[in-house]
Amino acid sequence: MDISTSTRPVVVGLDRSPHATAALEHATALAERRHLPLLLVNAYEPSQFDVRSTAGWSPDAAGVPRNVAERLVDDAVDTLRAFHPAVEVRTKVEAGSAVQLLIEESTRASAIVLGSRGTGGFAELLLGSTTLHLASHATCPVIAVPAPDPTHPAGRGIVVGVDGSALSDSAMEYSFAEAADLGEPLVAVHAWHDVTRTGVGRMMPLAFDPVEVADEQRLLLTESLAAWRDKFPDVEVVPKVVYGHPVPALLRYAGKARLLVVGCRGRGSVRSLLLGSVSHGVLHHATGAVAVVHSGC
Fold it and tell me: Other C-beta atoms within 10 Å of 115: how many?
């Protein structure tokens, strides 16, 4: 993943939710900072417009929904051209599944940005189904952005979860590049809570020294960070080793940060799951933006 020289666009999924508005602002700032094109995507579906027909849904007969979708995108383009004239803006409006369209775009994107919750029919859910599905299946980093909270000031700095896995390495590459671009500090959090082992394939004795185990975890974090510190010498890195579950540990440090970065799947025991429990947990409960990075993105 060479995000510093990539010319792939930043893709943002648009709908009528305040979360999507926040996502557009985040995506625009990212595209402007990286000198990348910005692609606005809207996929309109029958459920979004309460269309009912005994004949079923036909994209060919979708004049009104398409006009509504195009107007939403055109309004966003007008705003961007007025306030961000240096950003190259592209658009795509299509009938069908937003998930499928965004997954297809992820193969050509540097990142996909979308609201952490959209305009689906289950507003009580903490995380929108589109966001959750994209975080699991996209082939580029996916950034979920919540609606702005006037009581929550804008954050500063990047927080990344580190567990020594390949996915963690990809997440660190992305977070170091973000911190370097922004000129802001990076907090690297390694949380450990499995007292049955000190490393991959190593079982602990019945009697163990928690101080020794903590030292091992600090060494793991130091070794994981070493190469990235050499590559990004100007980034201020704050390492944090925490005893406890990774989700609350990451959320605690991310509370005042600009962005929380996690790998799509870590060292969990259920390797077949596309979205790990940690990334799933922080996506559901974070109050700020979360980037989920896949290995090889």
Answer: 26
pLDDT greater than 60 at residue 198: no
Neighbouring C-beta atoms of residue 246, cutoff 10 Å? 25
Tell me the angle at which helices 166-182 and 18-34 cross, rounded to the nearest 10 degrees.
80
Tell me the CATH number for domain 10-145: 3.40.50.620
Measure the CA–CA gap between 222 and 279, rounded to whole angstroms. 22
Regarding beta strands 111-115 and 10-13, do their DSSP bridges make them parallel or antiparallel, or are they unpaired? parallel
Q: Is residue 289 over pLDDT 90? A: yes
CATH level 3 topology of 158-293: Rossmann fold (3.40.50)
Q: Considering only CA atoms, which of 41, 40, 37, 42 is closest in space to residue 8? A: 37
CATH 3.40.50.620 location in the chain: 10-145, 158-293
pLDDT band at 208 (very low <50, low <70, confident <90, very high): low
108's tokens: 């050509």
> What's 36's DSSP letter?
-
pLDDT at 266 over 90: no
The encoded tokens of residue 95 equal 């009938």
